[in-house]
Structures are given as C-alpha cells and as structure tokens.
Specification:
Order of helices and strands: EEEEHHEHHEHH
Number of helices: 6
Number of strands: 6
CATH architecture of the largest domain: Orthogonal Bundle
Strand order of the largest sheet: 3-2-1-4
Largest sheet: 4 strands, mixed
Radius of gyration: 16 Å
CATH class of the largest domain: Mainly Alpha
Structural class: alpha/beta
Strand content: 15-25%
CATH superfamily of the largest domain: Winged helix-like DNA-binding domain superfamily/Winged helix DNA-binding domain
Shape: globular
Length: about 190
C-alpha cells in the first residue's frame, strides 16, 4: 500500500515502532489518537461511527511518553481553540486506493471553505462516484486532521459526519469567516 503524504519530517519526533494510542480531552469531547511507527493513523471522537475494534489501537501511552501523540494532541487542541489552521503531522491513514485518493483531496480543501461529495467525485473523474466518495469521507480515520467536516450536501446543506452533526456544525463554525456567518444554511 502506498504511503500517505507526510506533512512534516517524521524525524522531528522520537520514533516508536509500535501500534499505540493516547486518549485526550478536547473542546468537542474525548478523542482517541492512534499512531503506528512514525505516523498518526487515527483520530476518533468517543462514540464516533465506524470506530475500529479496540485491538486496532495498540497499547495506551501517556502523552509525555510519546512525542508524536503528545504533539498530535496539542495541535488538535490548538486547532479547536482557533489558534491553529493547519496540522503539521506525519500521517499514514489505512484504506483502499480510492479512499486514499479521496482523503488526499480532502487535504486540499482550504480552511474556512467547503465542497460537496459530487465535486470530489467530478475531481476524481466521474460524477457517479459521489456515493462512493461519501463512504470514503465517512470512514476517514483522521477526523478533523483530514478535514472531512468540510464536505457538504450538493445544495450546501449540512450532511452526515461520523463524529456527529453537532461536532460538524461546531467545526464549520470555528472555521467560518465572519462575513459568511450571516448567510449560512445551518
């Protein structure tokens, strides 16, 4: 399987060659961060749909014990507090080739902007892929970091989010330019 694009030099972090996780509190609820070797592979809210089995999380560590997970938790909280707009983490989400392509497109959606499932399908070369795009977006293992919350219905309406619509609404509101707030549909 092809390696997902890295967005920083993994050598900046002390590399642990194990599957491990960290539970952290955020403004939008508890989150589980999962790493394998030198990259983050999962970021899940509690009670999120499509959560992998517990065995897929590895051993639990404390944030200070694992630099990658500690930095991931700090960046997530900075983002949710509105002081960070982009993540600088090595990422390696696991999924089929189609999902990998969809997740790469999600990473190109600018902060404060949205797109639709249909627009992503057209970017992939076939508008008929919209439902399949929706499945890949819904199974995104790196919630918030790979910004699946920026994908809306074709009419601009708020649609499903594995972390819950209240969280999606909060994430979009966080990123929303002040001028757009008056015109929102949700």
């Amino acid at each position: 399987m092809a390696r997902f694009a890295l967005f920083c030099d993994a050598r900046e972090y002390s590399v642990r060659v194990t599957l491990r996780h960290l539970r952290t509190q955020t403004k939008l609820g508890n989150m589980l961060l999962v790493a394998r070797d030198d990259a983050l592979i999962g970021a899940y809210f509690d009670n999120q749909r499509y959560l992998p089995e517990n065995a897929a999380f590895g051993e639990q560590v404390l944030g200070k014990e694992d630099q990658l997970l500690h930095v991931s938790a700090a960046q997530m909280n900075e983002y949710l507090e509105g002081t960070r707009k982009h993540f600088a983490l090595p990422l390696a989400p696991e999924g089929d080739e189609f999902s990998q392509r969809v997740w790469q497109i999600l990473l190109t959606i600018p902060y404060g902007e949205t797109t639709s499932y249909g627009a992503i399908a057209r970017e992939l070369g076939n508008a008929a892929f919209a439902q399949r795009v929706g499945q890949s977006v819904g199974h995104n293992p790196l919630s918030v970091i790979v910004p699946c919350h920026r994908v809306m219905g074709s009419d601009g309406s708020l649609t499903g989010y594995a972390g819950g619509l209240d969280r999606k609404r909060a994430l979009l509101t966080l990123e929303e330019p002040a001028a757009a707030e008056a015109n929102r549909l949700f």
